[in-house]
Amino acid sequence: MKHVHVGNTKFAVRLAGEKGYPLLLVHGFPLDHTIWQPQIDFFVDHCRVMAPDLRGFGASDVTPGVVTMEQMADDLHGLLAALDVHEKVIFCGLSMGGYIGWQFWKKYKHKVLAMIACDTRAVADTPEGAAARRQMAANVLSAGPGAAAKVMMPKMFAPATYQNNPKLVQHVQQMMERQKPAGIVAAAEGLAAREDVREMLPTIDVPTLVVVGEHDTLSTMDEMRQIADAIPDAAWVAVPEAGHLALLENPAVVNEAIAEFITL
Ligand code: MLT
Q1: Which candidate, 124, 105, 119, 98, places its Cα nearest to that of 200?
Q2: Average pLDDT over residues 138-165
Q3: Which ligand 1 atom is at minimum distance from the Cα of 245?
Q4: Is this model's pTM higher than 0.85 or not?
């Protein structure tokens, strides 16, 4: 792991690979960069992979207050500068990482070569969804990160994964449980406050790959199909035997789709 400062905030970032396109892997909530291990292993020989821990997660600093999706996009922009990455990158975001990707596109499109949107959404939280998220944040403050895992874990995988791959399920549960409460709360507030970006999608004029697990209940096939339809140059892949964490449940299909998309 490399540690770099953006302003006063310290970020941890996993760097792997020395040649090819810069590939920025942006994790979901409440996770850290290790969610991308199958992609880091696969793309290390083809790309310059950067997998940061976002503000408040993994080994990156936690800062007080609400952390918006825009703040996270600013962080990533600062991180690229701190890493001396001056060319355009392939921005690959999972779920919350995708929400951050939309904001990154809005502010920093000159830095984007291509977009990969994995199991993510373009709509905002409903008022009920935002309220439930804030309740979860309150529970995390009083009871610890397990309160977030309790809410999130049932939404992560396809039914077959829960049944057949308890080790993977446990791996993700542990990842959630080791996140810092203050980091989870700050991001949960940011998630609850995020905007609907559907009207912005047609402005995405770089090649885009939309990836969704066929059994994803959080960012559904229907919703992701609409995202792909709204982006002028979007390719689409539905991943069998996978839910929200398709990149972990069926990494062979996801890696192959990404490799084909970026023509390795
Ligand atoms: C994620 O995987 O980042 C979260 O499921 C996003 C969300 O809860 O909206």
Answers
A1: 105
A2: 98
A3: 2
A4: yes
